[in-house]
Amino acid sequence: MAKTPTKVMLIGLDCALPHMVERYVAEGYLPTIKKLIEKGTFATHCMPPYPTVTPPNWATIGTGSFAGTHGVTDFHNHTAGTNPGNENITQNWDRERINAEFIWEAADKAGKKCVVLTYPGSAPTRMTNGVIVGGNGFHVGENRKGLPGLDSTFYVCEDFIVSTDIYPNGFRGEFADADGWEGFEALGDDPQEMEVRLPFPKSIKKPVDTTWWVLAPEGENGYEEITLATGKTADSTLCTLKKGQWSEMIFTTIAMEDGTEEEVHFRCKLIELADDLSEFKLLVGTMAPTKGWAEPAEAWNGNRITKGSIHSNGGMIMAMLGSIDLDTYVEMNENLSMWNAECAVNLLENQEWDLFYMHSHPIDWMYHLVMTDMHEGSPAVREKAWEVHRRIYELEDRMIERILSQADKDTLVVLVSDHGATPDGPVFDPYKALEPAGLAFKTDSKAMENEVNPIALSQNIPDYARSKAVPQREVYVYVNLKGRDPEGIVEPEDYEKVQREICDALLTYVDPETGKRPVALALPKREARILGLYGDRVGDVVYALYPEFGGQHGHMLPTAEYGPGKLGVLLVLNGPNVKKNFRMERSCWLWDVVPTICELLGFPKPETCEGAVLYQALKDPNFKDKELEKLREGMKRMEAAMARDSREPWDHHDCA
Prior knowledge:
With 656 residues, the protein is α+β, with helices and mostly antiparallel strands. It has 13 helices and 33 strands. The strands form 9 sheets. A 9-stranded mixed beta sheet has the order 21-6-5-22-1-23-32-2-33, with helices on both faces. It is globular. This is Putative AlkP superfamily phosphohydrolase/phosphomutase. InterPro entries: Alkaline_phosphatase_core_sf (IPR017850), Phosphodiest/P_Trfase (IPR002591).
């Protein structure tokens, strides 16, 4: 009889590319993942759903459902009853928008203990006994629920820069003669100070105006270190740093406008310090609360996480805007991965569990930052981009190693990603195809304001009075329909005619710069069911781009390849009754993950699960049939024995 797992641990690496994993495994950079592959099954042709973007695909990995069923059909959701432009879309980081049952919710009903960490769309919890940590953003402390564009807010605030120069969302200060400091020794002949009024960028709950101080003592070789403090006494010191150093984890309290105090934890790095103070740059990491991010609240036992730290978007936006260098960027992601690992270990060590699901995002951020440089930068730029690329995979491998300390020999380990990535190409604006066809027109007014726009959303509010068609989100075009849309101009009887016109305009458009057609596929909504897209949250036309156009992922088909990138996803299975050192060549999809887990562990399938069991990955795919046959044989023996016992004594032997 095949041995089967008793627990499951799914670790999700957003945007991990299977061919890159194989490369770095072969080169010796990913020892933990190497062990999982060598003693498990590696899927060579696992595909993500379409669109190839984060919220819908993690919903699929958690429910086993198509996007049309679970209802998360893009990074954003359109607000029903409003005009169909991008001014009326908000991000899909909300359990209430998912119309399907998660695997942990089905398991919870069956009495299983489940732990879910920073999993997109998992909060608020619907479990009775399970634990949810985060879920409304990419990491603990971040909230994207219901926000427009790519906006985010934070408990208590995101990272910021304190400097003598100007940086977005930062604080620019000047040094002056230090005065009134107590308890410090050897300040030198000319110590300097900077008064820092904390900017608290993107805070949800507003802190009171808060002032900290930077002290720079003068040494023999000028200014070689600084002290960050909440006041001018030695016992108010938060950290003392030399150039290039990170602080240990800092714990302090922040006073809020509502009269409460919030204990926060964070780390700092002194990025720049000239010996004459002409250059000074201090990174202050995301100030995240030390509690309040778990459901139920008592699930977090109050232990402080002292390793790693949280950083908004892993520093991606800061790096894109030139606020930090690439080495600091990698270190920020190292901190975040380490924090996630320590949080996971703390949760799993301190309670019983049968299922653990988590999501980690550094690889995705890295591709948005350096994928294009990996493909077409100068030799020096390409070399640095590839170095960053390798280091991000390495730090995620170390995170996995730490978390696997909580898995025993009876644990099924699943390593999975949600989509791949390709380098940036020319941006495709659907208006370029639709406006010459007389279908869509835009105004000069902005639909949203973003610091950066890595998923290439159309930024302008449509001219509804003139537009038969309205581009929306990453892959949709809506018919501006009378009776449905507030400013609709298309008669219902012309609906299908306009759908066809939209498809024709998209498919025949030729980019003037490249001489190529950007659009690979355009389907009326009815035909989009073949992509798993249907229902009220799908546009009237669904389109996809060739991979040499647009951003890294989202509007490329699941099989797309371009430059060093591919859109296929990582899937590794390791544990009891899983084949060892096996390359599974069959095509499979992310919606197959949940039913395969349930089959192996005997968990109830979620009510809306639509995927298939990956029998080819199992040592004994017929183990349940064999168990049933063994039970049937046992029942027959019992029935025969009971029949003998029920006969009269003289019927017990043929000679009677």
